[in-house]
Amino acid sequence: MRILAVADDESKSLYDYYSPGKLDGIDMIISCGDLSPHYLEFLVTMANCPLLYVRGNHDDRLIDTPPEGCQCIDGELVRVGELRIMGLGGSFRYRKGENMYTEEQMRRRIRRLALKLRLWHGVDIVVTHAPIRHINDFDSMSHRGFECFQELVDKYHPSYFIHGHIHKNYGVNIPQLTSLSGTTVVNAYEKCIIEI
Question: 191 lies in which domain range?
Answer without folding.
Answer: 2-195
